Amino acid sequence: MTDLRVAAVHDNAGWCDTMCRAHGVPGTYHGGRVWASSVRTPMFYPDAVTLSPDTTAADVLSGIDAGPGASVKDSYAALDLPGFDVLFEAQWIHRPAPGRADTAIAWEVVGDAATLGEWERAAFGGEVTGLFPPALLKEEVRILGARAGGEIVCGSVLTPGDGVAGVSNVFASGCDSGTAWAGTLAMAAELLPGRPLVGYESDLEVPLGHGFTSIGPLRVWLRS
To answer: For the chain, how many structural domains are there in total?
Structure first.
């Protein structure tokens, strides 16, 4: 499980880096201990991600703007960050590679800016936030959506990591969450076959019901 957790941590740091680069805010890997951005990252994305259980607060804080609004993903729930509060806690999750399966509704890979706007409206309660810029479509990530009645009703993101596939941003706005997770697994089997899946969630009920197991805690800190 330790190797899977490391893979999950590094895949997630890579996704954070990809998102930040798409916004013109590239981060830096510091000696295998932390990924960090020296300027504030897009909303919902941390300014630093720890890569080792031995990473210290000094390792993290030296690479970021640690003022109000700074956030840190403590990947091993091992840090003490004075001046920061715990925003939320979650669990890294893992699932063996899924097999191919039929889906209850039609899924697609988002491939253009207009569809990406539809995806954002579905994911964020009717708003186009700009969090997912069209530059992401040039990356290796797969932004997935499923339609019912012509409208995107659920979706997710797959990120190809080192021997694994990361699952994140799973949402259900017009269908049940079980349908969103089942469809994501089916798309992972089609697009990234044979890869174990990793990710993290605060609410484990649905992913555990789709074959995932918990492989360790994480914590996100925020400076108010």
So the answer is: 2
